[in-house]
């Protein structure tokens, strides 16, 4: 069974290609950049190339995209061409080729302004029931691509699952104030509480989605590390995160003190992965509790796969003010 992976030179694309090849499966990688995991170099906006790559394909993992870091360096039209037209090309050719499962990698960024509650309100409990309010061209085009996937399931019967992934990139945060306030490992460990996932868990969710797509038909799922929090924590979490983490993960403070780390003073949103765990049978392994246990033993809490793929960046140039420019 042939699998097509778009964006095969990226973090997730490479991780999927590695995992599929390790499992002895036939996988074809497509990307605009050449890489050890790219078989076809070109853009998903090229219909003839997409058609050729789709031949004999049964599963599509569509990870190729322009990301948030490209908002300041690419035009809105670039985002529409890649994220919408490119997705349309893939969907139409997938139907023509008789693809069994189309897995679209989306992002929690589609929620946009719905992620940040007004001052004085509790932290937001983000489930699939929250209505997205995109705040930039990245979120808007990913939301539009999601709707195209739903349309192709409804009208063409394509089995299509959408995975809204939280942060899994290893690069530094683009927010200068956050970079200056927290060490990178400190910040990423904090984020595992509410808005980050390990790359290996992201991959396992995609592989399970491909297996479940035919029986589910269509669905949207938040893919993020399992949070230790509950809805009753949200009011305290917004104002005093440390007290809530202390209650839910006893002993974290001693390890943070040993490393000179600090917890965020407040957390404004929590991504909830319960639907993906229930319907996909997903069992993510990497979360804040696991990270603290590893850190206590001076072990790297990241997965082997995450370390193998490493950092890639999003541009072919360096920027003086951070890992990428902010629009």
TrEMBL record:
The organism's place on the tree of life at top rank: Bacteria
InterPro entries: Epimerase_deHydtase (IPR001509), Lipid_A_modif_metabolic_enz (IPR050177), NAD(P)-bd_dom_sf (IPR036291)
Family annotation (Pfam families): Epimerase
Domain NAD-dependent epimerase/dehydratase, chain residue ranges per copy: 4-172
The name this protein goes by in its record: NAD(P)-dependent oxidoreductase
